[in-house]
TrEMBL record, chain A:
Protein name: Sugar-binding protein
Pfam families, A to Z: SBP_bac_8
Coiled coil: none
Residues that span the membrane, as ranges: none
UniProt xrefs under PANTHER family: ARABINOSE-BINDING PROTEIN-RELATED, SUGAR BINDING SECRETED PROTEIN
Organism per entry: Streptomyces minutiscleroticus
InterPro entries the UniProt entry points to: Bact_solute-bd_prot1, SBP
UniProtKB/TrEMBL annotation, chain B:
Keywords: Cell membrane, Membrane, Transmembrane, Transmembrane helix, Transport
GO biological process: transmembrane transport
Subcellular location: Cell membrane
Family: Belongs to the binding-protein-dependent transport system permease family.
Residue numbers spanned by region Disordered: 1-23
Positions of transmembrane segments: 47-70, 112-133, 145-167, 309-328
Membrane topology: Multi-pass membrane protein
Name of the protein in its database record: ABC transporter permease
InterPro entries in alphabetical order: ABC_transporter_permease, MetI-like, MetI-like_sf
Automatic annotation (TrEMBL), chain C:
Highest taxon, organism lineage: Bacteria
Organism listed in the record: Streptomyces minutiscleroticus
Residue ranges of every copy of the ABC transmembrane type-1 domain listed in the record: 98-288
Protein keywords: Cell membrane, Membrane, Transmembrane, Transmembrane helix, Transport
Biological processes, Gene Ontology terms: transmembrane transport
Family: Belongs to the binding-protein-dependent transport system permease family.
GO cellular component: plasma membrane
Protein name, UniProt field: Sugar ABC transporter permease
Cited InterPro entries: MetI-like (IPR000515), MetI-like_sf (IPR035906)
Topological type in the membrane: Multi-pass membrane protein
Location within or outside the cell: Cell membrane
Regions that span the bilayer: 38-59, 103-124, 136-157, 169-188, 209-231, 269-288
């Protein structure tokens, strides 16, 4: 598990292959340069693992169980902590997909075995962990230096039980904006300045869909306004204070008008051909990024990183970021510390350090994971942040604005199942020729069956 | 198969000794020795079969039985993966609800169709391949390695590639179809095409495997059978039908049973064929198999009790199929 | 030893020697006949079909996300194959994982082959009370869907405190009803009762029969079963993933599960990991192919 800077290496190689074979030499040079950088990082990694294998005997080893998107190691945070605490050695276990990671975590928690000292929990699972596994996890609010005020209020509450035990410390959040292609907007006769674009739909998702109709009227060939129906319904629902559960923990998705409205609006947009007929994060969806098939997408900061990783090099600088109709959150993670760990005290300290504003800011600069600690928003890593895709746009400040406006949302243990049903067994069907009513019926049937114990 | 070799042997040896009256002390001594040997022989005949099968059953008792019992017990409860020891008794409700569970029956239908689409061509092709590989061939080692290459590929790796190859917009298969003038096929969303695509992953991975099993069995067929058939003027095809196939009967039965059981449990391929839609097997569950449905209820939705009942229902369905199958084949055998 | 013991069937039904010489090679089917051109064409198609997805995995591993999104898809290798393989190798710490997996798959395969052969022999050729019922149980255990058993099995392993130890993967994998069933069906066909009888007449104990008659006769099937089990254990994911960690003693599939992570999964890196997970098996087949196939051929020549 050597450190490496994935996005950069990818970008480098992508620039290479877009050129002709004649430039293969250049490509090789660029790639080997990239590898050189990787090797440099690997050397850093080598130091730490070298010291561990050599003199690691007396050290306390803290292990982290993570999925996909964290990147603590890639941002050099372990090395830094180990330098600050020479007696500590940090190891991580990373699984790419949360679908693999989470069921195993639940199994490990219920049996109290096979757990790492620190375990990451995705926001989609945090409510369930809070509800069912709190007894297995440490109360992190008691750790030295940890204060509730250090985090966005809603982020803190999401990982806190009713009787005040905080089972997880927030790492990143995903405040959402709308990322759009300036070139495509211009061709379709829409404004391109982010302030003006934001005004087009400020305050209402219906307006955004109306802008979509305008776009469609003069759309460049083979492009859609939005990337996918799933992206739209997710964005709308993310800004609601109540979506699938009410505050008492009752499932209300079927009767909550906010959910039905979001579904209907998305279905309408899909029916009118304003969204691509894609499911997000499928290889096929990736290709629509690479081939510039859509003009706008609801996007948290990490989405910009994703776009960067999947785009052709010539798309750099063609994007910009405007405020979403309503602010919402998409994604984010918590670090939890199982009580049964051998080094739970040390692990809790490390978790607190990794989630402190300074480290969150460093992580943002390196990985695009947006801080959940408001104090980080004034740090230069955030205020000066830029992205290749969006040129000079001050994305740090744009997303920080959005983050502060995000409403506290009631999240339930099975949010993911409900949302998956509405998206993958629901609105996507409209793009395949089903009526919105049929799609809703199919979604509800699936969800109800999946929720029933 | 009915030769009583095991019981036939001892009487020859043991039976001979008491038959002859002892002439002198030496002979009596020899007879005693033989009797002792014979007793040991009897013990050996009687108990060694159990000794031979016991390791399997001991391992099964250690690692197979508890999961089975637990699952059976869990199927009578409402129990969630988040607290697998926290059970609430519901009797047979998890079973009775299966009757109105349209997702279960949809999955059962899909399992059947995917099972047929994948198993039948797979076994026929495997038989043909084994037959060809049974000839003297240049580079036969090469083909045997090639044959196993797909099986050596993990389901995850195989599905990953096939998803890309079957891509609607940029997949190689649609690209090739386009060359011959066929419009792009939506391999993931169309019911039959998605089932064909999922089946093709299964066929790809398992054909060589079955061919290898057939091949191993074909090579155990005594050459003499072919020679006498050839002397009777049987053509190659007739030799295949009248010598090869009958000799392979136990092996064919084996592959059919194993493939049927395997087909009933298929879940990795459909799971990964549209991994971004979770375990629902497509947006309209168009390629959700029973194995995948079980996985969805148990691992994704975390309903351990329901999933256990589904597992046991699958088990019972298989047993029913097995009984029906043996009754039919017995009838067929009786009539022929 | 093999020769003397596998000969009897041929002797048991001895074809008159003159016949054997009279039959021309062409008249015989089976192992001795040469394949015609049609056979080679079919094999060529089959080879392409079998290898293409693998070759394309390598092509995809050598390309980046952007190139994979273009039409027509890439047909030839890009420049980064070895870089990606190298990153995947170091990133997933595959050296250690290969060692672990070899241990796990090797022990499992050898044990399963041995236990299955003796049990399969008993079920195929020996008579004992409860044989039918016990065989039904064996086949029955195959029908239990494995995805579900692993939850209670994990509870067991957790109680035994075996997490992150290789025996947690090895021991449960030894319950192979498949192997027993496979060997039974093979021996039913391939082991003539006459040889066993002949050995019995010579006064051989059951164990001697197994050692000197059954094992030689079962060799081809044992080779096949061993290979199949090795591959299966090598590729197993769900269970090893639950009990092993990447820092402890991961198997290959556990080790590569973390590849390509990040908000932008690196498709080609994932492909490179998939390729690396499969490659050793292919290399082993290629190197030992002769021996394995030799084992099968022996059965043919002598059977």
């Amino acid at each position: 598990m050597r450190a490496r800077t994935l996005p950069q290496s990818q970008l480098r190689s992508s620039r290479g292959t877009a050129t002709t074979r004649r430039k293969a030499v250049v490509l090789t040079a660029v790639v080997s340069l990239g590898m050189g950088l990787l090797a440099g990082c690997a050397d850093d990694g080598g130091d730490e693992s070298g010291s561990s294998s050599g003199g690691g005997e007396g050290k306390t080893v803290i292990t982290l169980g993570l999925f996909g998107t964290q990147g603590f190691k890639e941002a050099g945070l372990y090395a830094e902590y180990e330098k600050l605490n020479p007696d500590i050695k940090i190891q991580e276990n990373v699984v790419e997909r949360n679908e693999n990671y989470y069921p195993a975590l639940v199994n490990h928690l219920t049996t109290n075995s096979g757990l790492q000292d620190i375990q990451a929990v995705e926001v989609g699972n945090i409510a369930e962990v809070v509800e069912t596994q709190a007894s297995k996890l440490m109360d992190l609010s008691k750790v030295e230096g940890v204060k509730a005020s250090g985090w966005l209020d809603w982020k803190w509450k999401q990982a806190t039980t009713k009787d005040g035990q905080t089972v997880g410390l927030g790492t990143d959040v995903g405040p959402m904006a709308i990322c759009y292609r300036k070139d495509l907007f211009e061709k379709a006769g829409l404004p391109t300045d982010r302030e003006e674009v934001g005004k087009l739909w400020a305050g209402s998702w219906d307006k955004l869909v109306e802008v979509g109709e305008d776009y469609k009227a003069k759309a460049p060939k083979d492009t859609t306004f939005l990337d996918s129906p799933g992206g739209l319904i997710n964005a709308i629902l993310s800004g609601e204070s109540e979506k699938f559960y009410d505050a008492s923990g009752k499932v209300i998705y079927k009767t909550n008008p906010a959910v039905k409205n979001a579904f209907d609006l998305t279905a309408k947009a899909a029916k009118d051909g304003l969204t691509g007929n894609q499911t997000q994060f499928q290889p096929a969806w990736d290709t629509t990024i690479a081939n510039s098939k859509f003009a706008a997408i609801s996007c948290p900061p990490w989405m910009l990183g994703y776009i960067k990783g999947k785009s052709q090099p010539d798309a750099a600088g063609k994007w910009d970021v405007a405020a979403a109709p309503k602010p919402g959150n998409w994604g984010g993670t918590f670090l939890a510390v199982p009580k049964s760990g051998k080094n739970s005290e040390e692990a809790a300290k490390l978790a607190a350090w990794l989630t402190a504003p300074e480290q969150q800011a460093k992580l943002f600069a390196k990985q695009g994971s947006f801080p959940s600690a408001p104090a980080a928003y004034d740090l230069p890593q955030v205020t000066d942040a830029k992205n290749d895709m969006t040129g000079d746009s001050p994305i740090g400040t744009i997303f920080a604005e959005a983050a502060k406006e995000i409403p506290a949302q009631v999240i339930g243990p099975k949010d993911q199942i409900v949302q998956q049903g509405l998206t993958d067994n629901g609105v996507i069907l409209v793009t395949q020729g089903k009526s919105p009513a049929e799609a809703w019926k199919n979604a509800v049937k699936t969800i109800d069956n999946n929720l029933e114990k | 198969m009915a030769t009583r070799h095991d019981t036939a042997a001892p009487p020859v040896k043991g039976g001979a000794a008491p038959g002859r009256p002892p002439v002198d002390a030496a002979a009596a001594e020899a007879a005693k020795k033989r009797a002792r040997l014979s007793r040991r022989w009897q013990r050996d005949i009687r108990w060694s079969p159990y000794a031979f099968v016991s390791p399997f059953f001991l391992l099964f008792l250690a690692f197979g039985l508890f999961p089975l019992i637990y699952t059976g017990w869990a199927s009578l409860h409402t129990v969630e993966l988040t607290a697998p020891t926290d059970m609430e008794w519901v009797g047979l409700r998890n079973y009775t609800r299966i009757f109105d569970d349209e997702f279960f029956w949809n999955a059962a239908r899909n399992t059947l169709t995917i099972g047929i689409i994948s198993t039948v061509p797979q076994l026929l092709m495997a038989m043909g391949l084994a037959h060809i590989l049974n000839y003297k061939l240049r580079g036969s080692t090469f083909y045997r390695v090639v044959m196993l290459a797909p099986y050596a590929t993990s389901i995850a790796a195989a599905s990953l590639v096939f998803v890309l190859l079957f891509g609607r917009d940029y997949g190689m298969i649609n690209w090739a179809l386009d060359l011959v003038g066929i419009d792009a096929i939506d391999w993931q969303n169309d019911k039959w095409y998605s089932q064909i695509a999922v089946s093709s992953i299964i066929i790809w991975r398992w054909t060589g495997y079955n061919a290898l099993i057939y091949l191993a069995a074909m090579q155990a067929i005594p050459q003499d059978l072919y020679e006498s058939a050839a002397l009777d003027g049987a053509s190659r095809w007739q030799q295949f039908i009248h010598v090869t196939l009958p000799s392979l009967r136990p092996t064919i039965l084996f592959t059919v049973v194993v493939s049927t059981i395997g087909a009933s449990q298929v879940f990795g391929e459909p799971l990964l064929f549209d991994a971004n839609k979770g375990a629902s097997g497509g947006s309209q569950h168009q390629f959700q198999t029973l194995g995948l449905y079980l996985y969805e209820q148990g691992w994704v939705n975390q309903h351990l009790g329901r999933a256990s009942a589904i597992a046991w229902a699958m088990f019972l369905i298989l047993i029913v199929i097995g009984i029906v199958n043996s009754v039919i084949s017995r009838r067929l055998r009786a009539s022929s | 030893m093999t020769t003397t013991l596998t000969k009897p069937p041929a002797d048991a039904v001895p074809p008159p020697p003159p016949k054997r010489t009279r039959i021309s090679k062409a008249a015989r089917a089976g192992g001795q006949l040469h394949a015609g051109p049609v056979a080679y064409v079919i094999l060529a198609l089959f080879t392409i079909g079998s290898l293409f997805p693998l070759v394309w995995t390598a092509i995809a591993a050598s390309r980046d996300n952007q190139r994979l999104a273009q039409n027509p898809p890439p047909f030839w290798f890009g420049a980064n194959l070895f870089d990606k393989l190298e990153v995947a190798w170091t990133d997933a710490n595959l050296g250690e994982a290969f060692l672990n997996t070899t241990i796990v798959a090797g022990i499992s395969a050898l044990t399963i082959v041995f236990l299955s052969t003796i049990a399969g022999f008993a079920f195929a050729k020996l008579r004992f009370k409860g044989r039918g019922a016990l065989m039904l149980i064996v086949v029955g255990t195959m029908m239990v869907p494995p995805q579900l058993s692993i939850i209670p099995l994990y509870m067991m392993v957790a109680k035994l405190d075996w997490t992150d130890q290789l025996q947690a993967v090895i021991l449960p994998s030894l319950v192979s009803a498949f192997g027993v069933f496979f060997m039974r069906q093979y021996l039913l066909q391939a082991l003539p009762d006459e040889i066993i009888e002949a050995a019995r007449v010579d006064g051989a104990s059951s164990w001697r029969v197994v050692w000197h008659v059954v094992f030689p006769a079962a060799r081809p099937a044992m080779a096949v079963l061993g290979m199949l089990m090795f591959v299966q254990t090598w590729n197993d994911f769900l269970w090893p993933f639950l009990v092993l960690t990447q820092n402890g003693s991961p198997t290959v599939q556990v080790a590569v599960a973390g590849l390509g992570r990040g908000y932008t999964p690196d498709q080609s890196l994932i492909m490179a990991g998939a390729l690396l997970g499969t490659l050793p098996l292919l290399v082993v087949f290629a190197i030992f192919g002769k021996q394995i196939v030799g084992g099968i051929m022996q059965g043919a020549v002598k059977g």
